[in-house]
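Progress against Task 2.4 (sequence-to-structure conversion) is shown through the following example record, which the project officer requested during the mid-term review.
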Amino acid sequence: MNIWEKTFRDKEWGKYPPEELIRAVCEFTKGDKTKSVLEMGCGPGANSLFLNEHFKSYSAIDFSETAIEKLKSRLNLNITNSTGEFKVACFSSLPWEDNSFNFICDNLAITHNDLNTIKKTLSEVYRVLKERGLFYSKVWGSSSYGLNTGELIEEGTFTKLQDGPCKNYGISHFFTYEEIRALYGEIFKEISVEKIQRTKLSQNENIVEEFIILAR
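Structure tokens generated for the chain above:
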């Protein structure tokens, strides 16, 4: 995981949330700002201002201390009413009580783990999610390019990728649709899955594939 400490320390990160997350949050809250949200793998806070604006309480967790410090700076510079907690910890053991959050956001964070950690994390998400809450999860798809440039750890999980969307990002797991249905469906009562594919025509038609999972 030291790769993320180095990445967040050395690289300028994004400042805006993805369109899919915006749609999911707006549909879920419908203007009601009484709910709580947890962002997993928050990084330096690309989604923080948006999530804090749409929820009464915004909490975040990341394995990188640098990421959490940058997140706090971003929030302090822009707002004064954040009521959540910011933790440096591992996803597989979330430091919150059962039924703590109405909405949990995973924007390409869980997918950067091995399968064992992913399974533990999904169980932890279920534990801290309130009844009728929503879990938004974006993960990499197995049709993404570059997988032949890394070391295979287990089926679907790679490290030391030299090309593709996860180049130089350490461990990355690339999901199939069937795997998502099996792993998420085993824990959550209701899931829906959307697939997004982008093609880089100027780079030999390389495909980047993502899955958006909404789980209740």
